Amino acid sequence: MFNLLVVDDEKFAVKGITQGIDWSDLPIGQMYEAYGAEEAKHILTACPIDVLISDIEMPDANGLKLQEWVKEQSPFTETVFLTGHANFDYAQKAIQLGSFNYLLKPVDHSQLKEIVAKAIHQIQSERELLDFNKTYETYYKHWLNQLPILVERFWQEVLAGKIPLTQERLQAAFELYGIPLNAQSLVIPVLISVEQWKEDLNARDEEIMGYALRKAGAEMILQEHPGCVILDQNGFHLVLLYVQDSTPVPMELDRRCYDYIQACNRFFHCSLSCYIGEKTPVAEINQVVGTLLRMERDNVVKINGVLHQLRDEVPGSLLPTAPSITDWFLLYELGKLDELLLRIDELTDRMQQGAARSETLQALGYGLIHMVYHVGHKKGLSIQNMFPHDELQDIAAATRSLNQLRSWAIRVVSTGIEYMSRHHQDISAVVAKVQKYMNDHLHEEVSRDDIAHFVHLNPAYLSRLFKKETGLSLSEYMLKIRMDKAQKLLIESDRKISSVAEVIGYSHFSHFAKMFKRVTGISPQEYRKKFQTNKS
User: Fold this and answer.
1) 4-aspartylphosphate modification sites (predicted)?
2) 517: domain range?
């Protein structure tokens, strides 16, 4: 609804407009009356007025003066002037002051109503436009705030091959996101690889530190040069320099990367390397970034370094052969820790001087795991118990660099040998655990594999160990304790013999009777009759 104010020093003129015109078919909420400019100002100050109908000639201040005040204090109010004089100066001044229309007295009510209706329609249109502009401005601000994320997502989709890299598609995206490139432009990718955090970080802390690395990369590698820093689909930080006349020369880019690495070492407590690609068209950036990723994967020796695609890439034909560690197996089995640690140091030192690659480290890592499982199973030991913290699971992290592999290998062989030494002294405890398990499961069909699984030992090794400790095989021991239990129940209880058989794990009475007679020399019935008679 809209508010209307009528101003005139003649009361009948005001009433003639407010009451003499039928305003019911217009969206007018309140109708106000004023009999001079000062009274009108009070109303305009107190209430929002949409349409002002004002006489020009008034004793305290004419309508033109009032209009000057209105434009300052209520700029969205539309004014319709009324006057009894056809004075061109008045009309000119009214137009200059931005009035909506100008009518001569005596006023034609239908004409005035039509002009007010047009004024209301214009106010509605202006309000809708203002609301649209406000809404647009709000979303535009949101869009600007999200623009860095949208740019990052665009480059992530480019690198992931999710969008067609046609000239039209690229050009449209560059214009949409305000990227200062065209479809023929070149970019220089710089891959940032975090090699090691010097402090343990949880997932949240690592994400925060990754954000800090990207911000620092933008400040120190890009500096004022156009470009962006993103997190790619492989979890690597990637700097993209847009090639322009001001693109830093290779030596300058090297210096920026070295300064960045030193700053990250100092402030973010991590070691990392930068891999600089060659200038490439946007449509071919996948291939260059793929090359940098292979370089990063194969770099297992050089840390905190700056490597170049054309200078430091190693041809696949130069892959080194995997080292043989077959002689380590016996040292590990015999518990020769000092000699084994010396072998690890010697081998990793040689690899440090040579052309070690990620495949070499992975082969050595898997070789060590094979050694641990081979010797452990040979001794009948549980690898899960030997390494309860999953040291053998994350082979990718263990072989990430030569230094990490050395530390992991030392930790694995030390843990394994210490466990084998301690376990050798605890054999009797294992046998006792097996005996308790068998006593607790007399009523069940328990196999050798079930028992071995319970104590995490190789079944064959457990059988040898149990026989050595007790003089009985597992099956002989189970038969003994079952028959001991059966004899006790036959003497001390009135259970049916078939019930006694079920209690000690025999589902068939005939088989129970056969085994009982083999052990005691008599049948269960004869045994009960003989010993219960003696008891009484």
Assistant:
1) 55
2) 474-535
